[in-house]
């Protein structure tokens, strides 16, 4: 199975030459003579490594970059000079000196590029424009029925992307691409939604039509997976190797990261946690089956059970109010659901043994009445007390978080190691109005 890595190692130990085996590409006398593709790959490895070190550090000196990357000082200086000309990094301030000229610190310029993130729902979409720090520049809401109508979604995505970029007033040359998150099974390589029970779509090609219409790179993924990507990029999981992102609310989903790689499974359905059958013959789920976890503890189930106690339909807002006011019937329903969900999560923790669990989603607004039973069950019901040492974080939730998650799909791809493909979408390979210099012209093929 192919895994897509989020980033370089948190503290890279490799040298630039370790990533490339040239033992079969040597001239007489033993001097390496790498082919063009190998030189390009090695160049990109070096650049990707330095950018990632700058991004993780926040601010860092050239000397520290050389120490951590194990590249020579001239190689680091050449790469940094190119990135400064491109506007990808900036010189920010000087660090204290132990003698001599104080070192100048480098930082990633968050305004060097912008990305669009879109979260699709059954009743519309949320669109954000973010900078390289995943900071929101513009956020828009648009309501339009999308259930069973993928063409309406494609048209709305194009319109809202153009509207958001106009409002953000960012230079077109700095727009890196569009990321889209939606509930369902996604073939990420092609950007095709194979199945979404929420939207009632099958085999819908989103990415290619949108690339043609907008002239921008487009990536598509399951919405809960985008939250995991966001946590790794700019959230609580920056240094975590193995973690779970649990989304609670209208649906129940799980983002699974193993050895810093997002696990999608053989068919893109990895993490469809809410559709495990936990009560055969139980309530009907939106997916068409009966007794799914989502049908037992999702928002719809909570509202239905409180409604049975109250004798009338209960909206999402009313459920929140009842919980906030301490209504006994609502609290009993929410507590029971939290314990049931917590037991299911405890089983997943036993299976994967993560170091971190992040709980997010609309359901977190129910507060401790819902979250505490989940956490208690995870602590108490895992094998060999794995849950007791598990770090658990609850994210403060905003409706924009889903769209920001989608935006980080573009950030990840823009900073990923691209290899030797001249069509690469890595940020340092893209054309830029302020500079026509390419990395090849700088002569950094060997990084030395």
Task: Name a few traits of the molecule.
disordered C terminus; 16 strands; 13 helices; alpha/beta; disordered N terminus; 5-stranded mixed β-sheet; 448 residues; 19% strand; 37% helix
What does this structure look like?
It is a single chain. The protein has 448 residues and is an alpha/beta fold. Helices cover 37% and strands 19% of the residues. The protein is built from 13 helices and 16 strands. A five-stranded mixed β-sheet has the order 6-5-4-7-11. Strands 14-13-12-15-16 form a five-stranded mixed β-sheet, sandwiched between helices. The longest helix is centred in the C-terminal third of the chain and has 25 residues, at 328-352.
Helix/strand order, N-terminal first:
HEHHEEEEEHEEEEHEHEEEHHHHEHEHH
As a percent range, the share of helical residues equals 25-40%
* Content-based structural category: alpha/beta
**Cα distance spanning the termini:** 34 Å
What fraction strand?
15-25%
Number of separate strands: 16
Rg, alpha carbons: 24 Å
Largest sheet entry:
5 strands, mixed
Number of helices: 13
User: Per the principal axes of the C-alpha atoms, what is the gross shape?
Assistant: globular
Q: Estimate the mean pLDDT confidence.
A: 85
In which order are the strands of the major sheet placed? 6-5-4-7-11
Ranges where pLDDT stays below 50 over 5 or more residues in a row are 1-32, 433-448
